[in-house]
Every structure is written in structure tokens, then in C-alpha cells.
Amino acid sequence: MENCVFCRIARKESPASIIYEEEKTIAFLDIQPVNAGHSLVIPRSHATELRDLSEEDGAHMFRIAMRVSEAIDRFGRSYGVKPDRKELEKTATRIRENQR
After folding, report:
1. Which of 6, 12, 21, 27 has the highest count of CB atoms within 10 angstroms of its CB?
2. 50: part of which helix (H) or strand (E)?
3. End-to-end CA distance of the chain
């Protein structure tokens, strides 16, 4: 969807500190984190609600979220609650480079 901020991020039309991406899913650090490592895992296809996804795509997203969560625990909690874009990019790079 053209006006959806998440679709724009998935199409790389809006900036994001991407920590994981593949054909169906993209994960990135939240620009206004509640805590260090706060990230979002979204489908590349537009879905307003979780129930809009097929069971297969929903399960895939959760598998990716588990993988991302582990990587964040190991490499991505080194910034404060109000990071700037440079800190987020540095952390995102470290997480991407160290995923299993």
C-alpha cells in the first residue's frame, strides 16, 4: 500500500536500521524504542492486522522474530533509549553481521 509507512520501509523508500531481511520478511530497529533492542518484524506484503496473514506467513514471521531476538540479545543492546540514527545503524550492522 502506497501510504503505509511499513510498506515504504519494506520497499526501502523510507529509512530504517534494518537488522534482517529476506524475501518475505524485514526486521528493523524502532526509531523510538521503548527499550534498547526494540525492533519490528514485518511482512514485505501489506497486512493491516496479524490475522490478514496466512498461517504460514505468520509462523514464518514469528520464526524470524525469534532469530532476531536472539541476535539482539547477543549484539544489540548497546545504546540508550533515545538513540540517534547513527547509533541505530551501527547496532543494526553489528546484528546483521553476527546472525547465525
Report:
1. 27
2. none
3. 32
Paired residues of 20 in beta bridges: 27
Domains in the chain with CATH codes: 5-97 (3.30.428.10)
- What is the structure's pLDDT at 38? 87
Taking the model in full, what pTM does it have?
A: 0.81
93 in Cβ contact with 75 (< 8 Å)? no
For residue 52, give the amino acid letter: D
List % helix, strand, coil for the chain (3-state, nearest 5): 45, 15, 40
Q: Give the strand pairing for 17-21 and 25-29.
A: antiparallel
pLDDT digits (tens, 9 = 90+) for 65-90: 999 888 888 776 666 666 777 888 88
